[in-house]
Structures are given as C-alpha cells and as structure tokens.
Task: structure prediction
Amino acid sequence: MSMTDPISDFLTRLRNAAKAKHKRVDIPASKMKKAMAQILADQKFISSYTVLEDKKQGILRIQLKYNGGKPVIQGLRRVSRPGIRQYRPSDELPRVLGGLGVAIISTSRGVMTDAQARKEKVGGEVIAFVW
Result:
C-alpha cells in the first residue's frame, strides 16, 4: 500500500505515542524522516533515535522525552502538504510561538530549523511546526 504523505504519518505517530506516554515509537525510515528526527534530537524534543536495518527501508526508533510526566513535544503541525506546498524566502520564515517552538524547513542545503535557515539566508519549504 502506498502512502500519500509519509511526513504527516511520521508526525501523527509521534503525536499519538507522546499522548499515550509511550517510551519509544517505531516509524518506517527515510532520509527526510532521519533529518527531521536529527533536528528533534538537536532541539531536545526527543531523547534519541536509532535506525534499525531490516530487509526493506529500515525502521526509525525514536525515544520520546518527558518532563515531569508530560511529553516535551506539546504540539506538532504539518504546514506544507502534498496538495498545498508552502515555500517561503528566508526573510519570511515563520516563528513558532515567538521563538519557543521550531519550524522545520527543507532547503537546498538540507533540512534545517527556521533559525538556521535565517542565519544562512536560505528559504525553502516549511515542512512542520514543533512546540
């Protein structure tokens, strides 16, 4: 079965696992999902992630992070969808909750946060908001 939006599936699995207070979640791997997991780990939204090899595409195992019993990831929102792509130049990149959250941007230099994209003066596709 083909999936029309694997990034939305990634975000939904994270959101559901955090709400259910799971310690970890397994997601089918891809380069984009690995890059997004790296950003989440760098920004301290998740504890860690590992890539488990199987005979197919691999599995991304994400260790969720909690603070006082509450998930660190309070919200995830897909911005650019297959039907409505959202591209922004570097000077128009959105700020999530006034800088408290992170926007994940896919640029010509790779996947990065909104702050990194502004610093490098590069725009791109606004993938998701995380707070």
